[in-house]
């Protein structure tokens, strides 16, 4: 906690809380503007200079800055999370053997770095040594010597007691005393009084018999009374292979971010929605009205405090501090706005908006204080600015009741002023005429203003939907429908489209999240394991379904949360507390894993991972070197050995594995991919297939066999390479493409075994197991270890943050990028053609029936009405769609890679290398040859008079070729079009380019209309909607764009190939990965219907009142 008068900021560092105080200074928990955590010390005296900033050593807490702020000296150091050595000895007990040697070596390394830089510590003691995750660290650098007598006094060198300067030799003496303390748990020169301590320091040689022999001589020399007899720091260096880690049971002070996030997640969804606005108002000096009871939990967490005059004055190192206050609630520390990333983001979002809101708040306050007088209302530009901000600029700030009343009254006054703008004229006829016209203007003005307010409200509701998109997906979907029903503004439509394709279906959070608890996912259930109980939550219903108390001293839990081990090593059923009667399961504790059947141990392994089949008949055991052994548990025999490329470096670990639900497939995660093993197939002619990007297999041998090794209670050690195999067989495996950032996370199968999911690099990839190909990927937000499919396999869930479960919709997986079979649609979107092997399948998408197959394969092109289909190749063939019969064959003199049919189907264009030719379809004869005009991107204009070939326009009547300069800069290279599309009126031509850009070209003016940036992937296909207002762009994802504003309406379900609008323009169609033709609504009315179905209905009246207070309730679904 901070006390009244503590500095709010020193240098560029914001102080959050006191971490401790000692003889050398006062230490604060602090954060910089980016939220990075530091320890800031205000020394008792002057800081030791800036030279410590230049010392680098892994066992020294880095000194980041040294300075003076308004007379207050400070030292900024790396924040080290870990207990000090005194607390570590209390938790761990005295250190011995290699661990003690490792500690001594680390401290000696730190002293050597200081002394070589000409610096000394002058205060080394157990409190200035912290045990962090990466080893011991020495803190308190650059501080003056202690000015008080405490336990640290017993670590002063004898010469310091006699008045000499504390030099390098004094540090060496302290090193010896600290090492001896670590070995015994006692201060080596402790005395009952100051005189007793001085006597022992000057005359007594402590007992060193507890030290291991490598240290005994060094510590003895270091504790010599004469500094000249002590070794120098480099002589103290001693090596050890042991790694020191913080002892169990230590819980250091949580960061301000962790405290804030835990308090936030403990709130109800309604309270969470109120937090941004309340904290932003506090930042701006406001006293917000707490309508949802949010302030009390934040105060209980220590994030907010009430200023009070009852705090007594306090003497501190920076002077006498006196608290003054008015009872207002304020942030406990301004560091909260830097340390908490979520709040830092809110501030960034609203930085400009807060200025406008402040003017509204202050004006509303003046209006209220002056009895709501009309002279204090907004009008003109002030009102326009306020309405514009409320409509489009704000994201988290909301108007309170007073501010809403103020704006509403300002709008009412504006309406009244418009009605009074009737000039006084001299003649009755003129008066009547003007009166009539002004009445029309007045009514029109009222209607315009009312429309503006409705649109502003719709934009505000759409913004709220976007703000809740990840934290409360269902509410976001319902809000987007409400926004569009209120007014079909662009922002509402974009929010509606985002709701249709967002993968997140919902978020469930443990009502009492605990960062110290372990969370597990089990299908539709969240299992929470804390020190006292196992609690099971239904993720879908949001209700607790079970809670089981745990006996004291339980040590480990199985991965499904059903079984546990006590400290005595005996397993028990979590639900009953009794020994398990049946079932095969594994429990891991540290690096040890035991596999049980009932209460009996089948086998135990160390530094390995274990996967079990659902029926308990098979086990797989993996090693750090990438070798995986398959075992039949009934006969306790090894049946196969598979090797994968293991993870190395800091991520090195035994490969993670998982059996499919029926046990027929084992997935093994290696550095280069996921290997699928069929443990049941061990035929001598079976091969390991490593699927490359092009789908062609390469083979390698994987040895299997039955070694007959006994696995009773012992670690499986059979090695297929060293013999002992009855047969040398091969096991069938397949390799799936590696996810970026492949990790040690466990893969997960869907309940039917059809899908396999694996997280890595901030996303989860999902494969179709039967087809051995990637089916889709989804971004993850703050993922934690834990992934599970729902019981019906339609939802994939992952753990996020602390105790939160995010549910993703995997019922309609996005298509993977890469090369796929060709597909095309007719211009009106009715007919579809797609490659199936060496044939083309034709489908009527309206009647949903197959028309037949034609014996051809290659690039496809329909005419506008879908009557004819051209197929590229050698020769080029033209087919009648209705009858699936051949119309004509065109010999283009080689393999034509691209074709296009004119809208009427009477003219065919073929591209063969750099040569482009046009053909009369009916006569089968060549019409014209265009040299150096061939291109893979071809498109006819709607009237058939122009052919676009890449960046060239061909006038088909005259044969003139007009090249277009698509460069975006004077020195830029000419981009190569990858896709083309004419608008329905023929006035605009869209060019798809590499790098995800789409260039719109005005054909009448010969100028650019603008550029759309869709991402970084090349554009594969473009389609205008029938009325020309929308442009569908298919790249890595499929997106919709408003042609007039060049703004993205939103993304659409991605497909494997093909793109077309329906005839009425209300749906967009594509060919899915499984070859079926699918469609997605793009008409907002249809989209709203589907979003309502996804969300489970509209907002309730209570939810509407809370989320959309500025508008009356509507049943929007």
Task: Describe the structure concisely.
The protein contains 19 helices and 69 strands. The protein is α+β, with helices and mostly antiparallel strands and about 1100 residues long.
Q: Strands, helices and their partners?
A:
Blueprint: E1 9-10, E2 13-22, E3 25-31, E4 37-43, E5 63-69, E6 72-78, H1 85-92, H2 97-116, E7 129-132, E8 135-138, H3 158-161, H4 168-184, H5 194-203, H6 213-222, H7 256-265, H8 269-283, H9 295-300, E9 304-306, E10 314-316, E11 319-321, E12 329-331, H10 336-339, H11 341-350, H12 353-369, H13 380-393, H14 401-419, H15 428-467, H16 473-486, H17 490-501, E13 504-509, E14 518-522, E15 525-529, E16 533-538, E17 543-549, E18 556-557, E19 563-565, E20 571-573, E21 584-589, E22 592-597, E23 600-606, E24 609-612, E25 618-622, E26 627-632, E27 637-643, E28 657-659, E29 666-670, E30 673-678, E31 688-691, E32 697-700, E33 703-704, E34 729-730, E35 732-737, E36 748-749, E37 755-760, E38 763-768, E39 773-779, E40 783-789, E41 795-800, E42 804-809, E43 823-825, E44 831-836, E45 839-844, E46 849-854, E47 860-862, E48 868-871, E49 876-880, E50 885-890, E51 898-901, E52 907-912, E53 915-920, E54 925-931, E55 938-940, E56 946-949, E57 952-955, E58 961-963, E59 977-982, E60 988-993, E61 997-1002, E62 1007-1013, E63 1021-1024, ...
Parallel strand pairs: 31-35
Antiparallel strand pairs: 1-2, 2-3, 3-4, 4-6, 5-6, 7-8, 9-12, 10-11, 13-42, 14-15, 15-16, 16-17, 18-19, 19-20, 21-22, 22-23, 24-25, 25-26, 26-27, 28-29, 29-30, 30-35, 31-32, 33-34, 36-37, 37-38, 38-39, 40-41, 41-42, 43-44, 44-45, 45-46, 47-48, 48-49, 49-50, 51-52, 52-53, 53-54, 55-56, 56-57, ...
Helix pairs in contact: 2-4, 4-6, 12-13, 12-14, 13-14, 13-15, 14-15, 15-16, 15-17, 16-17, 16-18, 17-18
Biased composition (Basic and acidic residues): 689-720
Region (Disordered): 688-722
Keywords: WD repeat
């Amino acid at each position: 906690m901070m006390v009244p008068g503590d500095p709010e900021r020193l240098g560029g560092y914001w102080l959050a809380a006191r971490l401790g105080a000692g003889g050398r200074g006062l230490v604060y928990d602090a954060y910089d503007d980016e939220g990075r955590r530091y320890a800031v010390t205000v020394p008792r005296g002057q800081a030791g200079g800036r030279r410590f900033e230049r010392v680098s050593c892994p066992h020294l807490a880095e000194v980041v800055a040294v300075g003076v702020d308004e007379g207050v000296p400070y030292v900024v150091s790396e924040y080290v999370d870990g207990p000090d050595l005194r607390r570590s000895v209390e938790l761990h007990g005295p250190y011995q053997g290699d661990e003690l040697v490792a500690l001594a070596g680390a401290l000696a390394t730190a002293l050597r770095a200081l002394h070589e830089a000409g610096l000394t510590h002058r205060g080394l003691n157990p409190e200035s040594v912290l045990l962090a995750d990466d080893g011991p660290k020495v803190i308190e650098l650059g501080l003056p010597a202690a000015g008080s007598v405490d336990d640290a006094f017993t670590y002063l060198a004898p010469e310091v007691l006699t008045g000499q300067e504390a030099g390098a030799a004094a540090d060496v003496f302290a090193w010896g005393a600290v090492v001896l303390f670590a070995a015994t748990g006692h201060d080596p020169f402790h005395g009952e009084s100051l005189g007793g301590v001085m006597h022992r320091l000057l005359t007594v040689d402590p007992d060193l018999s507890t030290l291991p022999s490598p240290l005994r001589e060094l510590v003895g020399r270091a504790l010599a009374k004469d500094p000249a007899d002590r070794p120098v720091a480099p002589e103290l260096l001693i090596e050890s292979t042991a790694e020191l880690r913080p002892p169990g049971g230590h819980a250091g002070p949580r960061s301000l971010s962790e405290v804030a996030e835990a308090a936030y997640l403990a709130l109800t969804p309604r309270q969470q929605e109120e937090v941004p606005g309340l904290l932003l108002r506090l930042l701006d000096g406001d006293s917000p009205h707490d309508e949802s009871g949010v302030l009390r939990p934040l105060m209980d967490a220590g994030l907010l405090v009430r200023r009070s005059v009852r705090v007594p004055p306090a003497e501190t190192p920076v002077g006498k501090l006196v608290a003054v206050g008015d009872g207002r609630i304020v942030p406990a520390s301004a560091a909260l706005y830097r340390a908490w990333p979520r709040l830092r983001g809110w501030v960034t979002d609203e930085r400009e908006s807060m200025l406008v809101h402040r003017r509204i708040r202050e004006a509303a306050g003046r209006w209220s204080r002056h009895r709501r007088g009309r002279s204090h209302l907004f009008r003109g530009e002030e009102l326009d600015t306020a309405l514009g901000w409320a409509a489009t600029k704000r994201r988290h700030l909301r108007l309170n009741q007073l501010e809403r009343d103020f704006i509403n009254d300002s709008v009412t006054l504006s309406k009244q002023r418009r009605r009074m703008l009737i000039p006084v004229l001299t003649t009755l006829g003129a008066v009547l005429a003007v009166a009539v016209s002004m009445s029309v203007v007045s009514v029109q003005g009222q209607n315009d203003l009312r429309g503006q307010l409705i649109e502003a409200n719709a934009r505000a509701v759409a913004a709220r939907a976007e703000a809740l998109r990840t934290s409360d997906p269902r509410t976001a979907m319902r809000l987007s429908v409400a926004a569009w029903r209120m007014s079909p503004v662009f922002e509402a439509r974009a929010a509606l489209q985002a709701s249709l394709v967002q993968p997140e279906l919902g978020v469930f959070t443990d009502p009492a999240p605990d960062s110290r608890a372990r969370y597990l996912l089990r299908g539709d259930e969240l299992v929470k394991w804390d020190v006292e109980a196992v609690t099971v939550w239904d993720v879908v219903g949001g209700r607790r379904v079970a809670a089981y108390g745990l006996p004291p001293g339980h040590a480990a839990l199985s991965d499904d949360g059903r079984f546990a081990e006590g400290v005595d090593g005996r397993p028990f059923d979590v639900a009953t507390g009794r020994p398990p009667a049946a079932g095969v399961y594994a429990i891991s504790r540290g690096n040890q894993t035991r596999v049980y059947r009932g209460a009996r141990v089948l086998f135990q392994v160390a530094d390995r991972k274990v996967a079990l089949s659902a029926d308990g008949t098979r086990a797989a055991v993996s090693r750090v070197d990438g070798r995986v052994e398959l075992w039949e548990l009934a006969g306790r025999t090894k049946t196969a050995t598979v090797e994968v490329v293991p993870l190395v470096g800091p991520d090195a670990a035994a490969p993670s594995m998982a059996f499919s639900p029926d046990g027929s497939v084992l997935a093994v995660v290696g550095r280069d991919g996921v290997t699928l093993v069929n443990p049941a197939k061990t035929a001598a002619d079976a091969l390991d297939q490593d699927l490359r990007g092009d789908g062609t297999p390469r083979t390698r041998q994987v040895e299997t066999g039955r070694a007959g090794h006994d696995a009773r209670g012992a670690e499986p050690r059979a090695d297929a390479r060293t013999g002992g195999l009855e047969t040398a067989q091969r096991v069938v495996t397949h390799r799936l493409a590696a996810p970026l950032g492949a990790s040690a996370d466990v893969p997960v199968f869907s309940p039917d075994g059809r899908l396999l999911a694996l997280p890595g690099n901030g996303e989860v990839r999902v494969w179709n197991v039967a087809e051995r190909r990637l089916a889709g990927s989804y971004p993850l937000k703050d993922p934690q270890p834990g992934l599970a499919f729902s019981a019906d396999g339609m939802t994939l869930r992952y753990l996020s943050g602390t105790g939160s479960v995010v549910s993703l919709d995997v019922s309609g997986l996005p298509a993977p990028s890469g090369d796929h079979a060709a597909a095309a649609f007719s211009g009106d979107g009715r007919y579809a053609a797609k490659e199936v092997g060496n044939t083309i399948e034709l489908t009527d998408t309206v009647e949903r029936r197959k028309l037949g197959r034609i014996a051809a394969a290659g690039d496809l092109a329909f005419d506008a009405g879908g009557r004819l289909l051209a197929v590229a190749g050698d020769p080029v063939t033209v087919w009648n769609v209705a009858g699936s019969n051949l119309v004509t064959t065109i010999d283009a003199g080689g393999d034509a890679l691209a074709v296009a049919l004119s809208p009427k189907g009477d003219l065919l264009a073929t591209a063969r290398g750099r040569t482009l030719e046009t053909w009369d379809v009916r006569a089968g004869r060549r019409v014209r040859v265009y040299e150096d005009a061939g291109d893979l991107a071809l498109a006819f204009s709607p009237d058939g008079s122009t052919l676009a070939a890449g960046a060239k326009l061909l006038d088909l009547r005259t044969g003139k070729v007009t090249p277009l300069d698509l460069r975006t800069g004077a020195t830029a290279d000419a981009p190569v079009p990858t896709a083309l599309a004419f608008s329905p009126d023929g006035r605009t031509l869209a060019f798809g380019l590499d790098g995800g850009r789409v260039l719109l070209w005005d054909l009448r003016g010969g100028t650019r209309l603008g550029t759309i940036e869709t991402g970084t992937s090349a554009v594969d296909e473009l389609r205008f909607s029938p009325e020309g207002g929308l442009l569908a762009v298919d790249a890595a994802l499929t997106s919709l764009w408003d042609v007039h504003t060049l703004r993205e309406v939103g993304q659409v379900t991605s497909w494997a190939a093909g793109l077309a609008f329906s005839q009425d323009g209300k749906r967009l169609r594509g060919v899915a990965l499984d070859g079926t033709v699918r469609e997605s609504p793009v008409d907002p009315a249809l989209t709203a219907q589907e979003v309502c179905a996804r969300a489970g209905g509209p907002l309730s009246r209570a939810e509407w009142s809370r989320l959309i207070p500025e508008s009356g309730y509507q049943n929007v679904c």
